[in-house]
Amino acid sequence: MFIDIHTHIDQYEPAELPGLLERARAASVGCVVSAGTTLASSRKCIELARANSSVVAGVGVHPQDLTGELSTEDLNGLDELCHDRRVVAVSEVGLDFQPASPDRAMQARALRAQIDMARRHRLPVIFHMRESIQETLALLRATRAGDLGGAAHYFQGSLRDALEVIDLGFMISLAKPLLRLPELQEVAARLPASKIVLETDAYPQYFKSKRERWTEPKDVPLVASMLAEIRGVGLEEIENVATANSLLMFGERSAVVRSALESGAA
Ligand SMILES: [Zn+2]
After folding, report:
1. CA 120 from centroid of its chain's CA atoms
2. Residues with beta carbon < 5 A to ion ligand 1?
3. Cβ-based neighbour number of residue 105 at 10 Å
4. What is the average per-residue pLDDT within 177-195?
5. How many CB atoms are closer than 10 A to CB 130?
6. Is 126 helix (H, G, I), strand (E, B) or coil?
7. Which end of the chain is more exposed for a tag (fewer CB within 10 A), N or C?
């Protein structure tokens, strides 16, 4: 069974979820991590995880969702959510330096505060670094966030970036860009097998006119198949290794992920 370590399935219409999770299960994706992007969405992720045995939750405020300083109230709210046993990561957090993004120093303060929170709860950090690879890695190094484990989500950097991420103590999370980016395929061919995890980052893609073309957790095996082809190994080997790596990454919370997987396999 596969684990989709990063999605935003809380953003789908509730009526979509039973079908989405059924399609995931049919594709051998037994566990889906639903990552929050705000305090409210983190709460929703936990509700989904409580209602669906194959779903577990991440909590965090996404850098693009910061509407001001991450407030003490929000931080306290997130901290409280981390006590829930179905929370397996602090996610989605990070830095996003695309034009028109929130103030960079403010993003960095929010990320640091959420890394401190992850440390209090001994949770791995699954992070976003868009147009900010060097700055994100410097902050992760300065805060020793790698001690907590976690992953660089939706990784699209160079081999050098990947090796730095790994050196810091994190996994490399590969998603569908692997299907179409030759540079990323070259990087993926060279990564240590023990550092690869898989995800879809699935969210409702209203910009795609055909509903059946939206990315869903069921697409994890597509990424795995491409990886198997690139690395010249069998799909089953990728499946086993990526799942084992994910369980290792979730550390103390891996028991919850494992039981979600078992329920997804049933
Ligand atoms: Zn995401």
Report:
1. 20
2. 92, 201
3. 8
4. 98
5. 16
6. strand
7. C
Cα of 200 vs centre of ligand 1, distance in Å, is 9
Give the domain range for residue 248: 2-265
Write down the pLDDT at residue 263.
85
Q: How far is the CA of 204 from the centre of ligand 1 (A)?
A: 12
Q: Count the alpha carbons within 13 Å of 135 in the hemisphere toward its beta carbon.
A: 17
CA of 187 to the centre of ligand 1 (A): 21
Residue position matching structure tokens 């990315």: 215
Torsion over CA: 220, 149, 63, 98 (sign): negative
Identify the CATH number of the domain in which residue 237 sits: 3.20.20.140
- Total domain count for the chain? 1
pLDDT tens-digit series, residues 92-108? 999 999 999 999 999 99
Residue 266 pLDDT exceeds 70 = no
Cβ proximity of 33 and 6 under 8 Å:
yes
CB atoms within 10 A of CB 46: 23
pLDDT surpasses 70 at 118: yes
Strand pairing category for 2-7 and 55-59 = unpaired
pTM of the full structure: 0.97
pLDDT at 174 over 90: yes
